[in-house]
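Collaborator request, handled under Task 6.
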Amino acid sequence: MDTKFKILLVILVLLAVVLVLFFYFGRTSRQVLPSKPNLLGLYLTDPDLLNKNASLGDVYWKNNQAIYISDEYDIGGRKGVIAIHPISVNEGSYIEQSATLPQQTPLKLYIGAADIAGKVNIPTSKYNFTASKCDDVGFIVKLTDVNANKEKILDNFVINAKDGWKDFAYDISGYAGKTVTVRVESYAGGPCGKWVGEWAAVDYVDIY
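Structure tokens returned to the collaborator:
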């Protein structure tokens, strides 16, 4: 085997290795659903009421009433959170977003939630985040298979403001490769009463 052939063989082997590595890492990076902009935050600069018909540019979450509190404010140890106070005693608030999930398994949905009554100090805010003797709010986490038009309630829980932030994880491996809608709702209720400190908030929603 002459020298030129050996060099050519080495080059071909190196090219093959590069192609394998490129394919592997490229495929892996596409399989992991990134946090931004797919499933995290509203990306708004004004911590104010969002009208469902407003034109807000890069808003990744549909909502009927949401308040984005920018990351310049510390909310119980977390920043850049979304408040979804129920609209009324009988009508909740929500955020939702659709995404096509990667084919990888296992696959989990992660959510951070809290009742932030008494945890927000924004002097210029028109909203009253003041805490009372007892504050709590309910949450419902839903996942809908868009093509099958089939909704599943993953969780239904109540958080007290004294509990701080709670982190939840749900195995959604059965939805790998499907287009789904993730929805987090708030509702008035809990041991404290039906309209007492219902300041539901979401810190993050992520899938990986």
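The cover message to the collaborator said: "The mean pLDDT is 76. The chain has two domains: 1-31, 33-207. Please let us know whether this matches your experimental observations."
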